[in-house]
């Protein structure tokens, strides 16, 4: 089995509705996103999926979040824009174009991340 990992980042703000503490206030993060794909087959030149193609799909998805207030976006009107829900939403969007996707990790700080996986 092969595993590929691609990483990117975006900046956005959010406020956690219903949270008791500082995070209920609007605040921002430089979010780091790591995505993982797995597969057992390589193409005729020894590549599972071209990194360039993975990065292009990831870029389209995180562009929808970059420099935004996540609370204002339709995808977070019902669900709180927590790290967990951001990871789940990114996973759902990427899975449409990257069938080998198995996990998305979203880091909101250098020491804290949430992951969503299948």
- State Rg: 15 Å
Q: In one word, what is the shape?
A: elongated
Structural class: alpha+beta
Helical residues, percent: 10-25%
Pick out the low-confidence regions.
none
CATH fold call: Tetrahydropterin Synthase, Chain A
Q: Give the tally of β-strands.
A: 5
Report the portion of residues in β strands. Answer: 35-45%
Any idea how many domains?
Answer: 1
Average the pLDDT over all residues and give the rounded result: 97
Please write the string of helix (H) and strand (E) elements: EEHEHEE
CATH-level-4 superfamily name = 6-pyruvoyl tetrahydropterin synthase/QueD
Sheet of most strands: 5 strands, mixed
Strand order of the largest sheet: 3-1-2-4-5
- CATH architecture grouping: 2-Layer Sandwich
What CATH first level would be assigned? Alpha Beta
Secondary structure tally, helices: 2
Give a written overview of the molecule.
Helices cover 22% and strands 36% of the residues. The chain has 118 residues and is α+β, with helices and mostly antiparallel strands. The chain has a single domain, classed as 6-pyruvoyl tetrahydropterin synthase/QueD (Tetrahydropterin Synthase, Chain A, 2-Layer Sandwich). β4 and β5 form a beta hairpin. The model has no long low-confidence stretch (mean pLDDT 97).
What's this model, at a glance?
The protein is α+β, with helices and mostly antiparallel strands and 118 residues long.
